[in-house]
Amino acid sequence: METFRMRPIGYVRSPFTETKQIPKGLGASHAEEGSLELLPEFEAGLADIEGFSHLFVIWAFHRAEGYDLVGRPPCDDRVHGVFATRSPRRPNPIGLTVVELLRRDGTCLRVRGVDMLDGTPILDLKPYLSSVPEEKLRRGWLAEAEARAGGGEATLPADSSSPGKR
Fold first, then answer.
1. Does a structural domain hold residue 155?
2. What is the pTM of this model?
3. For residues 152 and 136, what is the distance between their CA atoms, to the nearest angstrom?
4. d(CA 115, CA 65)
C-alpha cells in the first residue's frame, strides 16, 4: 500500500478547543469567525486570493484515532457508511470545509464558517467554485433525516447549496 506524506501549510485559529463545542447535527450553523494562518514560506501562494468570496479548506483531523467504515452521525438514528458522512473517524483523516473569506492580512486569512479546532493543520486551500445548479443538488440521507426530524417531506432546503453547510 502506498503512503503519502503531507505537511501543513499553516494552522487554523478558531474559538473551538474541544470537538463538543463545534455545532453539529440538523440545522447546525457554522458562522464562527477564525483565521487561517499560513506559514511564511507559502505567502506567495496567496497572490490573488482576495478575489474569491469563499475557499475550500482541506485540513487534517489531527486528533482522530482509528476509523469506522459505518457509524451513526449525531443528526440521524440510522447507520451510514463513513464516506456518506463527515465523521472524523476515516481511513484518511482529512476534512473539507467551505469558509467565507473576509480579508487577507499578509499570511493570515480572516474567515467565517470555521468548524475546525484551534490549531488544526491546514493541508491546502482552493477557491470555492461550483457550476452545479441548486436544483441538481441532492442531500442524500441527510434530507431524509431532516424530514423525519421536522415531520415534513424530504426536499432540498432553499439554502442548502450555500457554502459552509454540513
1. no
2. 0.79
3. 20
4. 19
- In tens, the pLDDT along 94-152 reads 999 999 999 999 999 999 999 999 999 999 999 998 877 888 878 788 788 888 887 65
Q: How many domains does the chain have?
A: 1
Would residue 2 count as lying in a domain? no
**Residue 159 is assigned to a structural domain of this protein:** no
In a domain, 70, yes or no: yes
| Cβ proximity of 76 and 136 under 8 Å | no
Q: What is the CATH number of the domain that holds 72?
A: 2.40.30.70
Cell 505567502 belongs to which residue?
A: 43
Cell digits of residue 66 = 482509528
Here the contacts of 71-80 (C-beta below 8 Å, separation 24 or greater) are 74/24, 74/25, 75/24, 75/25, 75/26, 75/28, 75/142, 75/145, 75/149, 76/141, 76/142, 76/145, 78/141, 78/145, 80/141
**Distance from C-alpha of 147 to C-alpha of 118, rounded to nearest angstrom:** 33
